[in-house]
C-alpha cells in the first residue's frame, strides 16, 4: 500500500524505469488478488435445486397476482370516487 501511495504521488514524467516496473507489478498483483477473491466468493455460491426454484417461483407469482388484485381494487375505488366528485363539481 505504501508503494502504491509513493508511486501515485510521483509525476509520471520523472518516473525511473524501476518505479515503472513496480507500478506495473502493483497493478498485476492487484488484479491477481481481485481474481483470487472472486474465485473464493464463487466457491461459496449455492445453486438451488429444481424443487427450490419451483417453490420460489410459485411464491413470486402468487404475490404478484395478489398485489395486482389489490391495486386494481384501489384504482377502481379511487376512479369511482373521483368520477362522483367531478360530477358534483361540474354539475352534469
UniProtKB/TrEMBL annotation:
Protein name per its UniProtKB record: Protein translocase subunit SecE
Summary of the function given for this chain in its UniProt record: Essential subunit of the Sec protein translocation channel SecYEG. Clamps together the 2 halves of SecY. May contact the channel plug during translocation.
Residue stretches spanning the membrane: 53-73
HAMAP family, per the entry: SecE
Gene3D superfamilies (alphabetical): Preprotein translocase secy subunit
Oligomer status and interactors: Component of the Sec protein translocase complex. Heterotrimer consisting of SecY, SecE and SecG subunits. The heterotrimers can form oligomers, although 1 heterotrimer is thought to be able to translocate proteins. Interacts with the ribosome. Interacts with SecDF, and other proteins may be involved. Interacts with SecA.
Top-level taxon of origin: Bacteria
Keyword Translocase listed: no
Pfam families: SecE
Topology with respect to the bilayer: Single-pass membrane protein
Keywords on record: Cell membrane, Membrane, Protein transport, Translocation, Transmembrane, Transmembrane helix, Transport
Homology family: Belongs to the SecE/SEC61-gamma family.
Location within or outside the cell: Cell membrane; Membrane
Source organism: Acidicapsa dinghuensis
UniProt xrefs under InterPro entries: SecE_bac, SecE_sf, Translocase_SecE/Sec61-g
Residues in coiled coil: none
Amino acid at each position: 500500500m505504501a508503494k502504491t501511495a509513493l508511486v501515485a504521488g510521483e509525476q509520471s514524467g520523472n518516473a525511473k524505469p524501476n518505479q515503472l516496473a513496480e507500478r506495473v507489478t502493483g497493478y498485476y498483483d492487484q488484479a491477481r488478488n481481485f481474481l483470487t477473491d472472486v474465485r473464493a466468493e464463487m466457491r461459496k455460491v449455492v445453486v438451488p435445486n429444481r424443487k427450490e426454484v419451483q417453490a420460489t417461483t410459485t411464491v413470486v407469482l402468487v404475490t404478484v397476482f395478489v398485489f395486482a388484485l389489490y391495486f386494481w381494487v384501489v384504482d377502481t375505488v379511487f376512479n369511482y370516487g373521483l368520477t362522483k366528485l367531478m360530477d358534483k363539481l361540474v354539475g352534469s
